[in-house]
Amino acid sequence: MPVFFQQQINETTRLGIWKIEETEEFFKSNVPQHRDVTHPHKRLQHLAGRFLLQFLFPGFPYELIQIAETRKPFLPNEEYHFSISHCGDYAGAIVSKSQRVGVDVELMRPLVRQLVPKFLSDKEKALLYPDTILEQSTLFWSAKEAVFKWYGEGKVDFREHIHLLKQHEGTETIDCFFAKTKTDLTIHYRYFDHLTLAWVVS
Asked: DSSP secondary-structure letter at 62?
């Protein structure tokens, strides 16, 4: 069973990454497909993400998932709060019975360095170390994606609304201020060899 990473965040919140090695038929025999996804690999990611929800919380009612106008998946009765992310051959998910959550997984790709001016302010760029720019740039993008998904209402400018204040390597956390709701957040993260993971629980 290809569980790449799994963590019990607290009594009501669980997080996991699934390395996708199964066929589409495997996932379709376990979870329904909720929307038309024509690209085969994206369809596989879509199915794997929903499979992971029930792996983390057996009994998760994935058949009730709806998609908001902002494209955020949700349950109408909010029995669970959840967030899903896909990247390459990986699907990540976080599920909580009590708190709003957001998660993002990203593969480390050189392209992210070219995008830095679009999503990081000058103060945030000053947090980057010359010898770890690729890793940190990927992480900071992932961190802001996790906040975006945690918020879930759309219309977020990554530079203007999501302010990364300080990275704490010892605790693997990032202090964040979300300007749209004037909320202080703690973003948690993990580095893997070729992958970054970031999540928010609040």
From this structure: G
